[in-house]
Amino acid sequence: EVSTDDPETAFRTLANREDLNPEEGSIHHCLYQFTRNEKLTETNKLLCDVCTQRHYGPKKNIQSEKKYVYTNAKKQMLISLAPPILTLHLKRFQQAGFNLRKVNRHIKFPEVIDLAPFCTVKCQNVAEGNTKVLYSLYGVVEHSGTMRSGHYTAYAKVRSMNSRLADLVLRGQSPQALETEPVKGQWFHVSDTHVQAVSASKVLSSQAYLLFYERLL
Question: What is the CATH number of the domain that holds 183?
Answer without folding.
Answer: 3.90.70.10
